[in-house]
Sequence to fold (850 residues):
Amino acid sequence: MRIKVKVFGAPSLALEKKELTLELAENATIEDLLNSLPVKDRNYLYVVREGIRLNSKSKINDGDEILVVPPIAGG
Amino acid sequence: MNATTELVNASVKKKWVGESIVRKDGRGKVTGETKFFSDMALPNMLYAKVARSKFPHAKIRKISVEKAAAVPGVVAVLTHKDVLGVNAFGILIPDQPVLCFDKVRCLGDSVAVVAAETLEAAERAAAEVEVDYEPLLVVSDPIDAMKPDGPKVHEKGNILRHGTIHVGNVDAGFREAAVVVENTYRTGRQMHMYLETEAGIGLVDEQGRVVLYAGGQSPYRDQMQISRALGIRPEQIRVISTPVGGAFGGKEENTVQIHLAMLAMRTKRPVKMVWTREESGVAGIKRHPMIVTTKTAANRDGRITANQVRIIADTGAYASLGPTVLDVAMENSCGPYRIPNIDIDAYSVYTNNAVAGAFRGFGAPQVNFAIESNIDIIAEKLGLDRLEIRKRNVLREGDVGPFGYKIMGSVGIYATLQRAERSNLWMNRDVYKSKASNPWSKRGIAVTTGVKGFGFGALPDFAAASIQITPTGKFVVGISCPEIGQGGVTAYSQIAADALNCDISDVYLASADSDLTPDTGTSSSSMGLVRSGNAIRTAAAKMNELLLEAASRILGEQKTKLALGQSMISSRRSPTISVTYVDIAQHLHSKGEETRVVAGFEVPRVNKPVEGSLEIPHLSYMYATAIALVEVDTLTGVTKVLQFYLSPDSGRIINPQSYTGQCEGAIVQGLGFALTEDTQIEDGQIKTNNFTTYIIPTICDIPEIQVEPVETQDTFTPLGAKGLGEIGIVPVGSAVANAIYDATRARLFTLPATPERVYEAIKGKEGKTVGKGES
Fold:
């Protein structure tokens, strides 16, 4: 299946592009997604779909758009 | 005060948004029935105390805890060796040690943390922690800290962040101007001074999970910071962040959480920590003091042609939210004005002072003082009315903002100026000014504007809410944004009741518990309502679908032929064919069907921030116009604010009474920023760390306040409501300072306007002895 991923902050620094299109196996989980990204600290990261945070076991669906974001705060 | 709105009986009303519903959490808080974490005690509980640095800047040669551990009643003494994960915290940049190991950078730094059977034993043991220090040169002045040969707070250097933004050509803007004004302004290091200091209880539950009860502004972000420091997965930690005895930004960062989690893990007993007021003064977050040099130019009719700004923000010893506070200062340094040529050069600088971070306004009140003072000076030089010059320059609906992006949200700043112009205070200003109490006192009045984005601007931001229908047909709404005093519990309930077509008494709010509520983000950046409100509406739409599907099955009627009514669903063909929420709930629960929904909301943003910034622009902003009437005793310099008027544009109003209360609270906190509040630090030593030496406004200092909102329908978010919590504080300092000038012809370039500063300014005129102003 094909998904879109937008990566922000420190995890994006090692990437050429901050917006990626990835091919993943059927039944892939967020853990599978993170395995394919240069993410160092998985415990300090938001993975979000449609405004809802996902955990490492969450299933990914074909066509998903997923944000990978370190905790941030602005004003 | 003008709490003129009629309170609504919550049991009979059918629509809730827009009504002054009595706060659901109000009675408990005003009667003292609400138990905050600092009030709580658990069986077998230990008491914790932090051993803090004795020097603002020093190397650590050796830490010895033997004497501390030998104090009777002591159960655990932890040092950096006991930090099993990353020995650092900080939301944006983890640069603050959980427990220091090689050096200390400010007096608030933690060296060891103790748990004991009694508070007295914990305090004694903390005092017995022996540290062999090698004192280092202290850097307290951010300008000194920027020098290449100054003492280094961090090895990488003292510049935390340097941001620049260039729009147009400021030199051309200065050349075409009829008047150019340049001044340097300074602002104070304000403390949050919440009623409840930083406090909490940590324990390990029967499943071996760490449970943290601690006042904070985002349980999930606290959970992640604890996880990183303890080296355990976030799921092994439960954080409950409410009730909070005030926050104002000061509880966004980790305070007691990580230390409590470490001690609970070590002792396997409940551990309580409550910072004393003095400890909160030393170790708590502060507002960034800023030095703002602003050069503003205008043509003959008062239209601004250029604005050049240099900002130096003292972020203290660690980053916390310093990088984004600087961004907001940059964004707001040009006010709510159309300015074609802009040049901003901004620094956030490490020093050995107390850590600065989030505080209501997030950098905006500081720069507002600068731009609004310059606008008044320009108006005087051009012979223009002070309100008229602002009307000529403010942004209008549909405008492209100063940084090149079209403003998506409503722009009501011109309307707030019009409303202020028609206010009794402004229309009769000459009458009010003529009534000074005695011959040596003088009165003055000023009008200023303010602007601030809400939310994280160009940074990604999202929120989720859950809704569950109970077996009795009520709804439990789950959101993780804590109630920090803003009236969120009631406002969220109003939004939910409207979206679910039920009575507000049928809505219960479960909030700020990482086990029970989805991640709704933070109660910060004036965004709690927008985040939670829109997430609740999205979840309610999903719940309504679930109810309609169930009703369809119960009634044998197609879903499309059903209509949602007040706590019931009926057939469009025949209203007598209906089923109540209670019946639907019982059906769902008895059949074991789904009764809970979760839905999320992603905040709209631009794809890429303005070059040189982190989060600029916001796509919608809050606006306000303020008027201050002051009386200055010219013999003592004491300034009394007699009346304060505020016309805010915060979009759709959810609860008028809460709205007025939020504005009044912001104004009063702004008066502290304007007149008295500034943490005094000399060579890194804090001189004002309690209510005796750090003076906040009391009821005796609060003027007559009038709040007249301009209610716009914001198109930025589905709810139509913008943020509110911060906009009321933004223009207060500038309005008071300009009113003092109007009264005395002595201009202040430094806030707070203490009696000493005002007196010296009157003696010296033009603030020669209190700032570096020149115009």
Q: What stands out?
A: The CA atoms of residues 47 and 54 of chain A lie 6 Å apart.
